[in-house]
Amino acid sequence: MTLEPSDRVADVPPSGIRRFFELAEEMDDVISLGVGEPDFSAPWAAREAAITSLELGRTSYTANRGKRELREAIAADARRWNLEYDPDEEILVTAGASEAIDLAFRALVNPGDTVAVAQPCYVSYTPGVTFAGGEVIDVPTRVEDEFTLTREALADAGAEDADLLVYCYPNNPTGATMDREELAEVADFCREHDIAVLADEIYADLTYDGEHVSIAELDGMYERTIVFNGFSKAYAMTGLRLGYAMGPAEPIAAMNRIHQYTMLSAPTTAQYAAIEALENCRGDVTDMCAQYDRRRNFVLSRFDEMGIDCFEATGAFYVFPECPGDDAEQFAEGLLEAESVAMVPGGAFGAGGEGHLRASYATGLDELKEAMDRLERFLG
After folding, report:
1. Contact assessment for residue 166 and residue 173, using Cβ atoms and an 8 Å cutoff
2. Share of the chain above pLDDT 70, in %
């Protein structure tokens, strides 16, 4: 036997985002609008809690499901979204929300099962389904619908045959959000066709127009939905790798069965930071959110001044403008080479992303101003 990758792995292409990161790393004076990472540091109180935990020698494993104190804090925080979960049976703390989503695919998808993936989307969903042995049904969303997931889009894609639906709202890469009425249509479709839902709500706190609504809150959806969230985005704790899943006891237990044999438990130091973040750092999140909103408005206004079409993103920290050129990948490479500004071609995020660019405004306003000036010069 030779050490050859399995077909499942070999058939998955490298991340389109990663290629642009690698190109940018080889250049000087690059302003990256491609990284989905806050430029803020984690709130000081959370960092201090992590430091204190280390000073006290708290470096052992925690319970597989995560520290109970943290699960209780997560359950309390979820009540903001009108969600009620038992911290003992219905919450699992993981090494980032990405691990939680991967666990859900592996725990719930049998070989040959179909998973509808709302696209454009976070780049890990489709490979995650493939690694679990499932088949993907692409469900492209449209700029005409402001990239919301509609009943029509689901029906046109044949999603009634799916076993699972996975989506992310507020959305990466588009910045789209969905209100209660729009989610109700999706919920109706899922109940009608007996489809379970994996709802990635990692950007829930970064909603600028109205309040975030979770589909799990809607009638008949709690028992068929797993909600994912974490501390990377709203709390600027990307490197601490901490996320969680909330859902009915049976699927959460199945996910934990895999988790306890692979990851064992989420990072201990990060869990102490997260407890402090949930209990005492809401003001920091509000302040960061206000800064993102200011940056969002600035970037949208500059695009408008340059004649670049871009719908008004209302969540996360991304905008998804239409590419001014005919080929988004070629345009992005040209912009990077000529002006050292990195944006990601929309095609990297799947069906519906072609012809667009993803620009993150999770960077300082001064850098955003310089990046927009360089973009304008490139267009000129």
Report:
1. no
2. 97
Query: Residue 292 in contact with residue 362, Cβ under 8 Å?
Result: yes
Q: How many CB atoms lie within 10 A of CB 206?
A: 25
**Per the structure block, which two tokens stand in for 126?**
């489709």
Structure tokens at 5: 């990758």
* Pick from 154, 245, 171, 166: nearest CA to 207: 171
How many helices (H) and strands (E) would you count in the chain? 13, 12
From CA 317, how far away is CA 66, in angstroms rounded?
28
Average pLDDT, the chain: 95
Q: What is the spatial distance between Cα 332 and Cα 349, in angstroms, rounded to a whole number?
A: 14
**Taking 90 as the threshold, does the pLDDT of residue 172 lie above it?**
yes
Cα distance between residue 169 and residue 207, in whole Å: 9
Q: Do 129 and 109 meet the contact criterion of CB atoms below 8 Å apart?
A: yes
Question: Do residues 166 and 137 touch, judged by C-beta distance below 8 A?
Answer: no
Lookup: tokens for 214: 């979770």
Task: Give the pair of three-digit tokens for residue 165.
Answer: 């639906």
Strand partners, 226: 198
Query: Where does residue 49 rank: exposed (0-12), middle (13-18), buried (19+ CB within 10 A)?
Result: buried
Q: What is the pLDDT of residues 209-247, one digit of tens each?
A: 999 999 999 999 999 999 999 999 999 999 999 999 999
107 vs 5: CA distance, rounded Å: 22
Q: What pLDDT is attached to residue 1?
A: 59
CA 193 to CA 238: how far, in whole Å? 36
